[in-house]
Backbone:
């Protein structure tokens, strides 16, 4: 499976989760706003470029802002799931 396919299949969940974590964790983890912004950029690329979308720079940015998807000790299950799903997509992108 490609990263684009994975992101498309999980688009509804990730859209909901990336918004939810900004509300729940934005005060103590401002990086979640960057996660939401980068994820939105990725979905925009996929919408316009389809399976040909080059997401390498987006995943580079995500790894940087999340410290390679490190889950904070005070993360809720939604934040944990968001980071795990994005890490999975990143792994698929590298294959």
Residues:
């Amino acid at each position: 499976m490609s990263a684009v396919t994975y992101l498309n299949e999980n688009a509804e969940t990730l859209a909901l989760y990336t918004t939810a974590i900004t509300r729940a964790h934005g005060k103590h983890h401002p990086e979640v706003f960057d996660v939401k912004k980068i994820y939105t950029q990725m979905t925009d690329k996929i919408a316009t470029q389809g399976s040909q979308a080059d997401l390498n720079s987006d995943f580079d940015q995500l790894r940087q802002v999340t410290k390679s998807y490190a889950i904070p000790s005070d993360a809720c299950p939604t934040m944990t799931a968001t980071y795990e799903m994005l890490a999975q997509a990143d792994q698929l992108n590298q294959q």
About this structure: The chain has five helices and no strands.
